[in-house]
Structures are given as C-alpha cells and as structure tokens.
Amino acid sequence: MSSATVPLLEDDTLAFGDEDLDTSTKKGVLTHPYVTFFHLAFRGCALFFYLFCRVFTDSFISSFIMIVLLLSMDFWTVKNITGRLMVGLRWWNYVDDEGKSHWIFESRKGQLQSRINDRESTIFWTALILTPFMWCILFLIAFLSLNLKCSLC
C-alpha cells in the first residue's frame, strides 16, 4: 500500500485547509505577520550568529551549539507552522501495525489554494531557497580561506 492510499488516523481533528482564515484582508497585507516574522527570524539569527559569533564568544563549541539550536528551531517552525499557514503544506510520518513507516505529504488544492496570501508565499519560498544558498557561499568562503573550523559551523 503506497503512502498516498494509506487511510488517515481516526483521531485527526481538523481536516487540512479547514482552518478559519480571514480572507477579507487587503491585498499585500500579511495574513500571518508573526508567523512570517519567526520564519525569517530563526534563519536570520542563525546567519547573523555565524557571521558575528566571535563578538559574542570565542568558544567554537558554544557557537556551534547556538547555530544548530537556531537551525533546529527554524526546521521545526517551517515543518509545523510556517509551511502550513504560509503556503499550505504539511507532512508527517506514522508507523502502522506492521511496523512500516508511512510518510504523508499534503498541500492545499482547489479553492483552498486561494486562501494562501501571495506575499507570504513569496516570502516563504524566497527565504527557503536563498538561505541554503547563503550557507553554501559562507561554506565556500570558510573552506577557501582554509578556516576549516568555521566551515563546520
């Protein structure tokens, strides 16, 4: 049985996309301003801390842990909150009675797709694409300058 045909668990409480959203907001106004802020904040803080970690601490371990924690918070936020509210994506995993792992991927479709704010969607995808690109550039700079310790962060 493929993951697309696996029945959902019976304890699902809210059908995906059935959240009460105010669709009467003006065009160009963020529907979820706090969600958008945290989507950018965790990514931005991790990059900022990487660039200026020597100002805060001389400890490589402390810098590494702080960056990993910020990126972990970013991952959790994107997976559980911003992906769902800003662009209508969600995914999860469950294990059936036979012990097989099933991944479920969902996105809003049809009329529910129109609930997505275009500005938030642009912010979400731009940040999602540009941040790894910036990390690759920072890695190459650290690697080519033979600063191997910083290339690990």
Automatic annotation (TrEMBL):
Belongs to the TVP23 family. InterPro entries: TVP23-like (IPR008564). Pfam families: DUF846. It comes from Cryptolaemus montrouzieri. This is Golgi apparatus membrane protein TVP23 homolog. The chain crosses the membrane at residues 34-53, 60-78, 123-146. Keywords: Membrane, Transmembrane, Transmembrane helix. The keyword Membrane applies. The keyword Translocase does not apply. It comes from the Eukaryota. GO terms for cellular component: membrane. It is a multi-pass membrane protein. It is found in: Membrane.
